[in-house]
Structure to design on (353 residues):
């Protein structure tokens, strides 16, 4: 009997036979008590009574899939004699139950460096129906293309796996729906949320936003030489930066705070320059993040120094002496003086008087 058969349905049963005659063969029937079934007798044209099994209420195969009934036929003799027959009722399945997920909301946390094809989570849905009606398959439910490119669900096992590389810096959380469908077409849905955790997969990247080079040698202490920009898209300790500058007393690194709270390294003059001692500097700035293991980035900064007229001409001697004859003709060479100037260009060009 199908579980969706409405109450009142009748199922003819085999009639009993009695070899006696007269009242000894008059038969009546009895059915053992069961709330789901009753017995009805249908009188035939020849006066015999056809027993029928009457369904009293809707069956539910998921609650009870079979019944064992006993039908008793009693004759009219004295003493009465009886016979019994076992009636087995099997309830056939109807697709009256949708799949049911074990949870309505599944969540998982996975690192962004998870290999492609790795298991993220497993969903499970059960269906109380039998056979094809109880067979559940899984699929993504109306998800954007970006998600379907990153995740795939096994239709049989409900395992959600990665199908492409994850990137925390691109997106750190994904939410989408999954669908469970049974063989009869009934469906149910659940929500899945996958949080991507950061890994230290990005090294700091340093760029020079502005560079004042060359720098005059008479530039005051505190002059801004270079403004730098450092980016590390990682989060937490993986994105926290420490800075190292090639040790040189003439320069120092100052961290200024941007409106968004980030720190910006600025290279400033920390000591007076002297082009005559050193006309250029090769500095190296290194940014190191707080990951484990740490990653770093470097940038080379070349600073040239321009001349200031800070050096007077210097004679090679303080006193020059010469002895000449009194009859020396006019225009004769008496002596030659020489001066040098450490400055360059016009600052180092010397004239005599």
């Amino acid at each position: 009997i199908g579980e969706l058969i409405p109450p009142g349905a009748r199922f003819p049963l085999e009639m009993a036979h009695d070899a006696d005659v007269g009242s000894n063969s008059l038969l009546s029937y009895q059915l053992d008590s069961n709330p789901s079934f009753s017995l009805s007798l249908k009188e035939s044209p020849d006066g015999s009574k056809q027993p029928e099994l009457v369904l009293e209420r809707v069956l539910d195969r998921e609650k009870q899939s079979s019944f064992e009934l006993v039908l008793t036929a009693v004759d009219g003799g004295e003493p009465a004699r009886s016979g019994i027959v076992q009636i087995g009722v099997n309830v056939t399945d109807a697709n009256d139950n949708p799949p049911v997920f074990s949870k309505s909301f599944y969540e998982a946390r996975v690192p962004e460096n998870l290999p492609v094809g790795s298991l993220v989570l497993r969903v499970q849905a059960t269906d109380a129906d039998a056979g094809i009606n109880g067979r559940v398959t899984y699929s993504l439910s109306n998800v954007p293309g970006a998600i379907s490119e990153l995740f795939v669900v096994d239709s049989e096992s409900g395992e959600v796996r990665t199908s492409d590389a994850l990137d925390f810096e691109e997106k750190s959380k994904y939410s989408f729906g999954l669908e469970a469908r049974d063989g009869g077409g009934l469906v149910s849905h659940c929500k899945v949320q996958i949080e991507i955790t950061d890994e230290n997969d990005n090294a700091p990247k340093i760029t020079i936003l502005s560079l004042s080079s060359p720098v005059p040698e008479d530039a005051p202490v505190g002059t801004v030489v270079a403004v730098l920009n450092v980016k590390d898209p990682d989060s937490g300790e993986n994105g926290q930066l420490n800075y190292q500058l090639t040790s040189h007393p003439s320069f120092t690194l100052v961290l200024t705070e941007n409106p968004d709270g980030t720190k910006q390294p600025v290279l400033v003059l920390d000591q007076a320059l002297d082009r005559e001692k050193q006309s250029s500097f090769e500095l190296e700035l290194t940014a190191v993040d707080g990951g484990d293991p740490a990653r770093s980035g470097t940038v080379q900064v070349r600073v040239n120094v321009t001349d200031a007229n800070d050096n007077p001409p210097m004679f090679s001697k303080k006193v020059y002496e010469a002895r000449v004859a009194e009859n020396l003709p006019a225009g004769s060479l008496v002596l030659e003086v020489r001066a040098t100037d450490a400055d360059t260009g016009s600052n180092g060009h010397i004239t005599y008087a």
Remarks:
- The chain has a mean pLDDT of 92.
- The longest strand covers residues 187-197.
- The chain has four domains: 9-90, 100-197, 205-306, 312-352.
- The radius of gyration is 50 Å.
